[in-house]
Amino acid sequence: MKNKFLGLLVPLVLVFSLVSFNAFDRDEEEYQQASFFKIDSKGELVRPTNYRSWVYVGSPLTPNDLNNGKAAFPEFHNVYIDPVSYKHYKKTGKWRDGTILIKELVSVGGKAAASGNGYFMGDFIGLEATIKSKKHFSKEPGNWAYFSFTNPKGGTLANTSKPFETTQCNSCHNANAADDFVFTQHYPVLRAAKNVGENTVPENSGKR
């Protein structure tokens, strides 16, 4: 009776294992192919509209006051990353092919509040994006490309954007970014998440 039971159990275990591995393969394939951006027939990036539901990682600010009145980027930069790429970064410590980061530009609206003096957000003034894609940007260093939907004269954002020339953004990221063209040194959320594990909640850490 015992041998008969074992004889039935072994095939069941094998079948279950095969099903599990196949399911894992499908999940991994879908995981890698998940896309949160669209490149149109002209090679332009279609402006993402749902990025505020993604993972928010921080809002760096380099105000004019601290840069002799001539800061290159005097506005707040609210940065979001698509959830699949964030999950992959937690799992592997690397930026997957297909990563997109959105940078929402917000003006400095004031320098005083009930809590004290500081820098406080004003109005939305622009939107930019960064994408890693070997398929679309195989000739770019690291396969990263950079886009802006911002209207220089203000007003409505553009619906599509051409990638910047390599010398405009990519070369600076290549020379100064800490982690594969991404300035993770300025984002404690990303520093804490790197390679921590796919299903692990990153803990706060003061490490750089």
UniProtKB/TrEMBL annotation:
InterPro entries in the cross-refs: Cytochrome_P460, Cytochrome_P460_sp
Cytochrome P460 domain boundaries: 48-184
Source species, domain of life: Bacteria
Keyword annotations: Signal
Signal peptide bounds: 1-25
Protein name, per record: Cytochrome P460
Organism listed in the record: Leptobacterium flavescens
